[in-house]
Design goal:
Layout lengths: L1 E12 L2 E13 L4 E5 L6 H8 L7 E6 L2 E2 L5 H10 L1 E5 L10 H11 L4 H18 L15 H13 L5 E5 L7 H18 L2 E6 L2 H4 L4 E6 L2 E6 L1
Parallel strand pairs: 3-8, 3-9, 6-7, 7-8
Antiparallel strand pairs: 1-2, 1-4, 4-5, 9-10
Length: about 230
């Protein structure tokens, strides 16, 4: 599903050149659960942005489902982000004034449905997803009325709305206590196993990474080891 070949990413900050990635190559097969692990400054967040089609490499090639993402225009990249990839972030990124249900419905609007279509066709799907992540009794709550773990469950539900092939999770337990973080990891691993979703988790936490099938370790923009 994912093939990265000699990816580099260079940022220019005034006269300073920063090499975030310095030639990264790996494959991730469909249905795998993989952790990308590294300390701050290792390049893992930059790599996630490229894998999520949020950014393009300076050089090298990234193929997603056999398509070279560098050859796609902005609209095609946006379609991939909306249809193929579900994003889960450390900060949850829920709209504070919208209900949990509305937050989960939003990807349907971005995919081209209008409000009427969402009410008729999408609401049942959103409610079913929220039930599946244990938030069936919180549909009309706002994010501020939820615990951190519940907010992350809502974010995971939103990521599932358009039935993506892959979940990209960036430090998904970073703002949670260890018990709640374990629950969120159980949910993500369960989605990988039950739905066959490709799961890529970016983390600095060895305990989190150990729950995946494989760890890709980054240091200073290079793969340190790629171990099973």
């Amino acid at each position: 599903m994912i093939e990265a070949s000699e990816l580099t990413k260079t940022y220019h900050m005034g006269s300073v050149e920063v090499q975030a990635l310095r030639g990264v190559s790996f494959r991730i097969e469909r249905g795998e659960a993989v952790a990308i692990m590294g300390q701050s400054g290792s390049g893992k967040s930059t790599l996630m942005s490229i894998l999520g089609c949020l950014d393009l490499p300076t050089s090298g090639q990234y193929f997603l489902d056999g398509k070279n993402t560098a050859a796609l225009n902005d609209d095609e990249l946006a379609t991939i982000r909306n249809r193929k990839i579900g994003f889960v972030f450390q900060q949850f990124n829920l709209l504070p004034r919208a209900t949990v249900l509305r937050n989960v419905e939003l990807p349907l609007l971005y995919a081209g449905m209008n409000d009427s279509q969402v009410r008729k066709e999408g609401r049942q799907r959103a409610e079913a997803i929220l039930n599946s992540v244990g938030l069936g009794d919180r549909l009309n709550h706002r994010p501020s009325e939820l615990s951190g773990g519940q907010q992350q469950r809502a974010a995971i539900a939103r990521a599932l709305t358009n039935e993506p092939d892959m979940i990209l999770a960036d430090e998904p337990t970073g703002n949670l206590d260890s018990h709640t973080g374990a629950e969120i990891m159980n949910l993500l691993i369960g989605l990988n196993q039950s739905r066959g979703l490709t799961l890529v988790i970016v983390t600095h936490d060895a305990t989190i990474a150990a729950q995946t099938q494989r760890i890709i370790r980054l240091r200073d923009g290079l793969i340190e080891t790629d171990q099973s």
